[in-house]
Amino acid sequence: MSLNSTPISDRLCIGIFGKRNAGKSSLINALTGQNLAIVSEVAGTTTDPVQKAMELLPLGPVVIIDTPGLDDEGDLGLQRVEKAYQALRKCDIALLVIDGTAGISIDDKKILSQIKQKALPYLIVINKSDLAEGELQPVKGEELFSISVSALNGKNITELKERITALVKEPEPKLPIIADLLTEGDLVILVTPIDASAPKGRLILPQQQTIREILDAHAFCLVVQDSELATALRTARQKPRIVVTDSQAFKNVAAVTPDEIPLTSFSILFARHKGSLKTLLMGIDALDKLKDGDRLLIAEGCTHHRQCEDIGTVKLPAWITKYTGKNLNFIFCSGTEFPSDLSSYNLVIHCGGCMLNEKEMQYRMSQSAAQSIPITNYGMVIAKINGILQRSLQF
After folding, report:
1. Number of other CB atoms surrounding residue 45 within 10 Å
2. Going along the chain, which residue ranges are E strands?
3. Fewer C-beta neighbours within 10 Å, C or N terminus of the chain?
């Protein structure tokens, strides 16, 4: 993915589902006109869901998820199938690929039921028309949602693209990260601590995206570490419109930022951007109700190498333990490993979710709500612990 391409979390997500050797990977190659997916006659070549960011004309930037076969076998195979079902959480559109020479199977019908239950726009792609003696017949009862193609010779691939495009609904307008809070010429100070857990040689995605929105708003952006913030505030020629900090530096940043200057964190801005601010704010009260032995799930949307100063597994548990004075049990998950059964937890604390699309974040919050488990995020917890939660919400 190029440096100025659309982040995966902001792309339309298309999931490709089906049995082993139905031609899922071949279909991806046919749709994109590139050999992006490994194609083999050996069943089960795709063993884990693989995300591929690409341009799919006439849609534009999309991310396609190539999933394992729904008929995989054995203990490991069943885990792979579960991964395929998990991919439904983040999909905007689902394509069910069927081997046209074999017809629809029980495994196909099972996932089709799940697709319908989630009210996902979908198409049933009946593949391998090149191997059929006559015209492939649509799935009974699904005629309006079926299309026969050949990923091998390209038959009806253009028509498939057009039908995928027709499924795309105009997205609901959502708040920007920060642009709507700014006017031309405003000064924004971004505080980005550089410690052992910071990636080498680059800024993390939420920082990059926030900077871009500030530039698009024709405002000024000053990026500093928390140790240089006091100097930046003292020497700035104009009063900052807002200070935005990495949540882990909330305490130090609040101590040196004058009360009249709005202060918030990247994770709080992203919760607002993804439409989850209200729900996550409701969950913060659970922090004051924790008891000895309670279980807290700390969830991250991405996977990365843990460092000694890791915020999710080291700093946050230490701060929460000190704040509550309770003997708590902390459980951690990352990436796609968000549990469907949350009943054993007393509170879920999620990261800012910058690497997750809105669909996945909404799923995680709906799971929490359905099981009456409060959910909040890193920024809100850290702000509350430091007594500045209300201030951090006054943009």
Report:
1. 17
2. 12-18, 50-56, 60-66, 93-99, 122-127, 146-148, 187-191, 220-224, 242-245, 263-265, 295-300, 329-334, 347-350, 375-377
3. N
Mean pLDDT of 282-307: 86
Cβ neighbours of residue 295 closer than 8 Å, sequence gap 6 or more: 328, 329, 330, 331, 344, 345, 346
Structure token pair of residue 116: 């319908």
* DSSP tag of 70: T
Contact 367, 334 (CB under 8 A): no
CATH number of the structural domain spanning residue 243: 3.40.50.11420
Domain that holds residue 372: 275-391
Contact criterion met (CB below 8 Å) for 264 and 393: yes
What is residue 304's predicted lDDT score, i.e. its pLDDT? Answer: 54
Q: Is the domain of 19 the same as that of 93?
A: yes
* Residue 8 main-chain phi, psi, to 5 deg: -55, -40
pLDDT for res 367:
92
> Alpha-carbon distance 372 to 67, whole Å?
31
Q: Give the whole-number percent of the chain exceeding pLDDT 90.
A: 58
The pair of three-digit structure tokens given for residue 118, joined into one six-digit string: 């989630």
Answering whether pTM is above 0.90, one says no
Number of domains in the chain: 3
Q: How far apart are CA 119 and CA 364, in angstroms?
A: 17
Task: Give per-residue burial for 285-296: e unless 16+ CB within 10 Å, then b.
Answer: ebbeebeeebeb
* Non-local CB neighbours of 83 within 8 Å, separated by 6+ positions: 48, 49, 67, 68, 336
